[in-house]
Amino acid sequence: MGEPEELIVTAAPPAPHLVSHVKPTPQVLPREVHMPDPEPLIERLSADNHEFRKLREEHKKYEEELMGLNGRGFLSADQHWRVSELKKLKLIAKDRMEAMVRQYRASAHA
What we know:
Elements (H helix, E strand, L loop, with lengths): L38 H10 L1 H21 L6 H33 L1
């Protein structure tokens, strides 16, 4: 048996009727949107709204407990379950606070 022949493939230029004469559109970069600092609003809601203040305190308590558990080297099955539960509770509290902030902003602009 002889050696296989070498196959050389070249690309043919595109057919003239397939070449587009449309100039590409320039790339439009997204504008950076600056959101107002939410901290003054959060402080105001914390001072004026009991439910918001309670949610904020709960969120902080969950975060502290979560940090304590995550700082341990080994977690039991119950502790793993508690970590999962704390993450969910934190998220629920955060979602409710964010909804209250959105509602406050909407009523302030109405």
